[in-house]
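[scheduler] slot 2 assigned
[scheduler] job type: sequence-to-structure, two independent chains
[scheduler] chain ordering preserved from manifest
[runner] begin chain α
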Amino acid sequence: MPENVIYEFLRVATHPRVFPQPLRASEAVHFLDGLFCVRNFQILGATDRHWESLRGLVTELGEPSGNLFFDVHTAALMREHGIRRIASADNDFAKFSRLELVNPIRGDRV
């Protein structure tokens, strides 16, 4: 899981304007602790190839802007680590030619 997605989960899960009863930070972290029990779970962080990945994605997308850069960051981390499939309901990931988007809400198979 890209590290920025972990922080986004923490931001949303604890936000009082998103949920009437948001998780406390300790509850959200405890939820994430469960992911570390999954055999092949790992956090994807930036490598020394990050700038190259980011630059390539900006070129491929042709001037992305605004909120799309959250997805660009995720895609850059995935590219650095050789991951080509993402499970997300965010259709903006379809803009990345080297990513296969699987939407679990529609029932796509992972």
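[runner] end chain α
[runner] begin chain β
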Amino acid sequence: MIKVNNLVKSFHNKTVLKDINLDINEKEVVVIIGPSGSGKSTLLRCLNKLEEADSGDVIIDGQSLYDKKNNLYQIREKIGMVFQNFNLFANMNVIDNISLAPMKLQNVSKDDAYKKATDLLKQVNLEDKALAYPHNLSGGQKQRVAIARALANNPSVVLFDEPTSALDIEMVKEVLEVMKDLAGKMTLVIVTHEMNFAKEVGTRLLFIDEGQIIEDRKPKDFFENPQTDRAKAFLSALPTAI
């Protein structure tokens, strides 16, 4: 589903991704963890070319993001993205936030887009908020709307960039429950600080430090038996409840 070849990315003469190679299979739930500044979010954003790599390639379902012969926007339609800070349109109500992309990008009729949006709102337990505006929603509700919006184009892959980090602790659970429900239905790539979620839901875990994939393991194996000194040091600093 996703193939990353020799990916390198720098900011201001600092290399933040160092020759990343990665294959992600269909319907895997890949969780990416690591210390702040390790390159996790940069890698995620390179997977849909929100950040452009200095060199290397990203291939989504057989199509390169960097081949100029390919239509980048058509490839991106296969990729949903959920941001840390929601990125909802403040001047649109919930159902219009969700319906906009299918109507503009896929020429879906308004009636069909609204029907799809209504179904997605039921999926994220927000069917009563269709006409609400973002400023009337809690952080957890905004993020669930953002997830519904990411699903509106029927993507094959959904990328989550620390989706709970901007939420109050009591709102985290409601968002994670929605994400758990998606596991196994599509390919998910999730940058997260929620270690229990990573252990419970992930089918695969990438531990990244200083722009490199240090460990690529099953989550249970990583948490119970880390193989590198860097991973052991990282885990030793986590709360003992993990």
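[runner] end chain β
[qc] chain β: The chain has a mean pLDDT of 94.
[scheduler] slot 2 released
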